[in-house]
């Protein structure tokens, strides 16, 4: 399967799984499990949800992670502060990177938008350098939009 096909299947299954469910935690849990199942060469995939100036750990697959990240710091916090997707080919070169798992070498962080407000992020880590590209970024942005469309607000 090439990358585009992997993402087509992942998004199809995510759409089906979320079709009858609007609870954001239930949907985030399945989306994390699907990213974990479909995406090769990753060591963490999951959600952080925004509470004020914090990003609080949500459903994920992988090793236990930092429960709380500060908006403006690290890759996740910077993606929120700048309001954009970040593709980081080498996390060790990213000032302020928060190393939850020493095995992570590259990272993709996609903000989740409700209109113009960011309510959280999808975060994916890889043990390989340069694992993520624009195809991954666009596909996970699309998955993020699907999550937002199909889920109620996180309280
Ligand atoms: N590396 C992230 C922290 C979250 S973990 O990767 C799961 C960061 O710098 O924000």
Automatic annotation (TrEMBL):
It holds the Pfam family GAF_2. Residues 44-146 form the GAF domain. InterPro entries: GAF, GAF-like_dom_sf, Phosphatase_reg/MetRdx. Belongs to the free Met sulfoxide reductase family. This is GAF domain-containing protein. The lineage of its organism: Bacteria, Pseudomonadati, Pseudomonadota, Alphaproteobacteria, Micropepsales.
């Amino acid at each position: 399967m090439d990358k585009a096909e992997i993402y087509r299947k992942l998004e199809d299954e995510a759409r089906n799984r979320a079709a009858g469910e609007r609870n954001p935690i239930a949907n985030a849990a399945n989306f994390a499990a699907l990213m974990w199942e479909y995406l090769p060469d990753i060591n963490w995939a999951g959600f952080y949800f925004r509470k004020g100036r914090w990003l609080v750990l949500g459903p994920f697959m992988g090793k236990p992670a930092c429960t709380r990240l500060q908006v403006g710091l690290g890759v996740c916090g910077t993606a929120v502060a700048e309001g954009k997707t970040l593709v980081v080919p080498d996390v060790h070169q990213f000032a302020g990177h928060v190393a939850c798992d020493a095995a992570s070498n590259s990272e993709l962080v996609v903000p989740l938008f409700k209109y113009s407000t960011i309510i959280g992020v999808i975060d994916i880590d890889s043990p390989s350098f340069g694992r993520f590209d624009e195809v991954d970024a666009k596909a996970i942005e699309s998955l993020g939009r699907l999550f937002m469309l199909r889920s109620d607000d996180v309280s």
